[in-house]
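@channel sequence for tomorrow's demo:
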Amino acid sequence: MKKILFPIDFSETSFNAFRYALHFAKKINAEIVTLHVYEYPAIVYSEYGNFLIDNYNVNEWTEFENYKDEVPKLRAIAENEQLEHIKISHVLKQGNVQDSILDLVKKERADYIVMGTKGATGLKEIFLGTVTQSIMNNAKIPVFAVPSNCEYQPIKRILFLTKYEKSHFPILKIIFKLAKVFEAHLDVLQVSTSFDNTHKTIYSEWEKSFPKSEVSFFTLTSNDYEGTINEFMKLHKTNLVTMPIHHLGFFEKIFSYSLSRKLTFHSNIPILGLYERKETETKQVSKNQKTMHS
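structure tokens (generated this afternoon):
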């Protein structure tokens, strides 16, 4: 059975994201492990810290009465969504939020992370300098980021943002399998200031690799990356945005363009970041697999 790690701070944002975690767990036949992290004495991340300061008496950490009160709310949400059969377990840890999440990913051998995000007004703000982005870069497993204003709806249209580079093809195959699980159509889109022949060749190769009825490929030329994606998503009624993550490089290039305005197209749409293996990592994985079978 697959496993979803769900970091939670018991805010409305995290309770809202839990609905996505439940429905995703149903689709992929997974169990959910929730993780609540408290930091003492140093509070680092405000979205977790504010909640702890407001709700816990720091002199009574051993009792965790609030924790005991909050956990049953998750079961209530599951019952309300008619998904009470989903297996849910809970972990409470003291320490650094990011380190605790990454440690538990390894310990539980989690397949996915689902977590809520809040306080952002554009893609740049979500991914640059946030806990979510840091987790995406370091967890090396797919991470669902669910914005606070996102109301759950069935995923029927998935958008994959790419640069039409060969290294993105393995990620595309993963997303295609996920799209089939959701019975969703997959749109593959590149937005750039120019479109060269190399991209055109890769575009053509990819297009031949998937059924046209299930996957559509697009290339758009624009200096307004975020705005163009916004219009595309409105037109195609996108339910989920996916993209490769590789140590900020992709996002730094995306947002090096001059953006005329901040947009909030993601305010009701979850984003799935998939770790893009570096060439050295890919070679090491291949070497390990050969060793295991020798």
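heads up for whoever presents: The domain at 157-259+266-293 is CATH 3.40.50.620 (Rossmann fold).
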